[in-house]
Amino acid sequence: MPRVVNTSWPIKEEISRRFFLALERLVELNKVASLEAFCNEYGLSAPKYRELRLGYGVTPKPDYKPRYKGIELEAAHYITACYPISAKWLLTGCGKMLTYEVQN
């Protein structure tokens, strides 16, 4: 039986987009210095996440398709376990982004 190749990952793309929205909010709140700092802190590939940001970031590059399907599970874990980002919001888009109000 031939293998079906899925070229569309809508849920993973939505989660990736919310990840970059959350990361941008953490930068605004001075909880994270930058994408590069977040990646370095948790052993993630900064070049990979810079490329993903071009496709899924706050202001994505029009018609840009990153080589990667989306963020890694580890990135989702760190942003929700170490910062006030709701895991429910990150995974489903339901509820509020922040688990509690953060003062600048």
TrEMBL record:
Domain of life: Bacteria
Protein name: Uncharacterized protein
Taxonomic source organism: Paramuribaculum intestinale
